[in-house]
Amino acid sequence: MNRVVFINRKDLLGLRCMCKKDLQLILDSVKPFKNIFTGSIKKVPLLIGKTVATLFYEPSTRTKTSFEIAAKKLSADVINITINTSSVIKGESLIDTGKTLEAMKSDYIIIRHFFAGAPDILARNLNASVINAGDGFHEHPTQALLDLYTIYENKKKIENLKVLIVGDILHSRVAKSDIWALTKMGAKVAVVGPSTLIPANIEDFGVKVYYDLDEAVCGVDVVNILRIQFERQQENFFPSIHEYIKFYQLTMKRLKMAKPDVLVMHPGPVNRGIEISTEVADSSNTLINDQVTNGIAVRMAILYLLKHENKKEFNV
Ligand code: CP
Fold this sequence. Notes:
Number of domains: 2
Helix content: 25-40%
Distance between the termini: 6 Å
Oligomer: single chain
Shape: globular
Largest sheet: 5 strands, parallel
CATH superfamily of the largest domain: Aspartate/ornithine carbamoyltransferase
CATH class of the largest domain: Alpha Beta
Number of helices: 11
Mean pLDDT: 92
Bound molecules: phosphoric acid mono(formamide)ester
CATH topology of the largest domain: Rossmann fold
């Protein structure tokens, strides 16, 4: 049994600056938390007396609920701020909203914001731990950590795995965080999509670029499919949705070109029949629901590992 070595950080803002050692520590810490909430114990008092606030300026089903469940499994109190019925719509600034939550003795603020950098602004101005739950096109670190863990759980390694990320890379914060995490852990990462949806100079991040899905999918270990983020697009990036489906939908025919034990992943929400066929979405290779379950365990580990006072000890 090894004692968890605490990550000496107050906030989790992104994975670009996270080292391989911390990524490995998180991977190694998740299983005991998964055992808690999927086993008979269900709940532990590790964060008893702590308050976790969720502050979501954009819609969410998975991330917000997952953080709430994770915090409750650790016995924290949870408050959810609904932006549409909060004083944000009366013009309150982000920092003032954060300071208000801190004055109410929130120990953690989980923030999703349409503005890339909003979690960083909050973290610099508060003593509370700030966790980025997705900021603009920038990063979605806990999604990438749950993706990383789901691959690790199934393949028992990350190094040298061929991982293909498909679709709207340009607007995807998940793709960016996945790329940082996977490349640091030694995976061979490639992206594929229409040239208009691939960021310029993405090769500088250590990824290979393809424009042809039939070519890119050959022999891969993992395919991570992204949703077309119409809500972030100010212009048309491909001629029509029919063309997108024809060239970039993951179908069973295309999946057969990957390795037989390929893992199919999707961060959700899924648009069946657009980026992924229903047959693939429901196939035995697909881990979409496992990703959601692992998301709770990963977020329990993150809440626990972040630096805070009066932390109770937990052996893993
Ligand atoms: N994957 C993800 O971030 O999903 P939600 O938008 O539902 O939180």
